[in-house]
Amino acid sequence: HCRFHEKMKYRILFFCWIWLLFPFSGYTQDKDLDVLYDIATKAVKRGDYTTADNGYENYIALFRQKGLQKDYHYSEILAYLARRAIQAGKIDKAITLQREVVEVKETAPDCTFAQWASAISDLASFYSSKGDYNQAIEIGETALKMLGKKLGEKHHIYNIALANQAAYYAARGRQGDNATAVLLGETAIKNIKKGTPEYDNALNSLVVYYSQIGDYANAQNHSALASRSYSNYTIAYQNTTPRSRIYLVLFLRFFLG
After folding, report:
1. 153-189 tens-digit pLDDT
2. Cα torsion 46, 51, 54, 58: sign
3. What is the value of pTM for the model shown?
């Protein structure tokens, strides 16, 4: 049971942080900040995450010191640091950072509604990593209502959040939670884009959910689908560029555990 929870933590987080391993463009009109950003970003590209983390931490500190308006780029660097904190097991720090991300994205003029709602969904995943599944479910429900109202319940982003919500219920494991996880997971997978890492991760998670409720026939069916999906990724790997392979290898690492 504990190993299942640990797997679900990684599976939930995959939806949220993998794209942030290669940060966005965060250049500003401030020379001092741009120098720090440049140092940190180059460090990420060569895999020196210690230097990168220090650079981004200094960027945030200087940004605050200068009293500049918190914008999209500021929030994305915070989000990067939050995910790095999760990887280091510093969950409380990650939650504190992510709460600020949510606050900034709510008011920053250059942030979209979807980015704000996704930040809330990420915050829920962090509480799940902490083992606070009640809080994760509550925050996740808030994100779903916002995304459903704005984007619609068929939208890819909405259904990634829904798949996360299924994982929170399964991880909590109260009576009826696994059945709820199956229902949410099946709903999500109908609308998540096929051929994406999120789709395959959600599919693999359903194998676990069905097994938890003793429905081994459906678990086996979904397992077969997941195996075929893995084969597709193996073929895809042979036809990707070196940079694309980095993303693919990271997915397979988490998918296969």
Report:
1. 999 989 999 999 999 999 999 999 999 999 999 999 9
2. negative
3. 0.75
Share of the chain above pLDDT 90, in %: 56
Reading the block at residue 210, the tokens are 């069905």
**Token pair of 6, please?**
């640990």
Exposure of 122 in the CB half-sphere (CA atoms within 13 A): 33
Give a three-class secondary structure readout of the chain.
Answer: CHHHHHHHHHHHHHHHHHHHHCCCCCCCCCHHHHHHHHHHHHHHHCCCHHHHHHHHHHHHHHHHHHCCCCCHHHHHHHHHHHHHHHHCCCHHHHHHHHHHHHHHHHHCCCCCHHHHHHHHHHHHHHHHHHCCHHHHHHHHHHHHHHHHHHHCCCCHHHHHHHHHHHHHHHHHCCCCHHHHHHHHHHHHHCCCCCCCHHHHHHHHHHHHHHHHCCCHHHHHHHHHHHHHHHHHHHHHHHCCCHHHHHHHHHHHHHHHC
